[in-house]
Amino acid sequence: MTKLIIGLGNPGEEHMEDRHNAGFWFVDALAKQLQVRFETEKRFHGKVAKARWEGEDLYLLKPSTYMNLSGQAVGALCRFHKIAPKDILVIQDELDIKPGTARLKLGGGTGGHNGLKDIQAHLGTPDYWRLRLGIGHPRDLAAEGARPMEVADYVLRRPLQAEQKQIAASIEDGLQILSLLMKGDPQAAMLELHSKVN
After folding, report:
1. d(Cα 21, Cα 187) in Å, to the nearest integer?
2. Where is the site described as Discriminates between blocked and unblocked aminoacyl-tRNA found in this chain (predicted)?
3. Residue 193 class from Cβ within 10 Å (0-12 exposed, 13-18 middle, 19+ buried)?
4. Is 154 annotated as contributing to ligand binding?
5. Could you list the residue range(s) of the whole structural domain that residue 105 is in?
6. Total count of domains within the chain
C-alpha cells in the first residue's frame, strides 16, 4: 500500500506556475480532495500533510529544497516513518510525454530528471512508483514554428493556456486511479490510466 506521495517541484512564489512544478500541482489537488493541509516540517526538509486512507496513514510531501536535492526530504521522511521504496509514489513532470497524458510505472531510469536522480541516490534503489505527468518537450513547440528553447528554460516557464488545461486533465486522471494503486492493484491502475485519451 502506498504510504508516501511526493510531488516534485521548486519552492517559492516565482516557480509556482512553472511546468517543472506539475508534481506540486498534483499533491495540492490531492490534499484539497482529502481535506488536509500542508505544514512546514524542517526535519523533513519540506511541507508535509498527513491523511488517513483505508485505515492507513498516508503522507503527502512537497520538498522545500530545489528539485535537484529532492532526495533529502524523501530520505529523511522515509527513514523516520520506516517507509519502504515500494510504498512510495513520486509525482513528476515528464518532457517525453505530451501534455494531457499521464503514465504510471515502477522503477526504471531517471530520464535525466534531476529530482529522480537525487531520490534514487537517497533511497539506494530505483524501485519506487512514479506518476509521470506529460508537459511536452520544447522541440515540439519548435516543430510548430515557435522559437527554439533550451530544456532548462522550458521547464521553468508557465505552460501555454491550452497545455495548462491538458495538464490539469492528466492530474484529474491520476487522482481517479489513485485508489486502485493505494489498494495494491497497480495493474488495474495502469490499465485504466493508460487507456485514457485527453
Report:
1. 27
2. 10
3. buried
4. no
5. 4-194
6. 1
**CA dist., res. 136 & res. 95, Å (int):** 5
Cβ atoms of 102 and 170 within 8 Å: the answer is: yes
- How are beta strands 129-134 and 102-106 bridged, if at all? antiparallel
Query: Residue 36: what residue type?
Result: V
Listing DSSP states for 89-131 in one string gives EEEEEETTS-TT-EEEEES---TT-HHHHHHHHHHT-S-SEEE
Nine cell digits for residue 40 = 512546514
Please give the sequence-ordered ranges of beta strands (E in DSSP) within 33-116, or none if there are none.
39-41, 46-53, 56-63, 88-94, 102-106
- Is 114 part of any known ligand binding site? yes
Q: pLDDT (tens digit, 9 = 90+) per residue, 24-64?
A: 999 999 999 999 999 999 999 999 999 998 788 999 999 99
Which positions are annotated as active-site residues?
20
Cell numbers given for 172: 484529474
pTM of the model: 0.95
CATH number at residue 43: 3.40.50.1470
Q: For residue 31, which of 51, 1, 8 has the smallest C-alpha distance?
A: 51
198 annotated to a ligand binding site: no
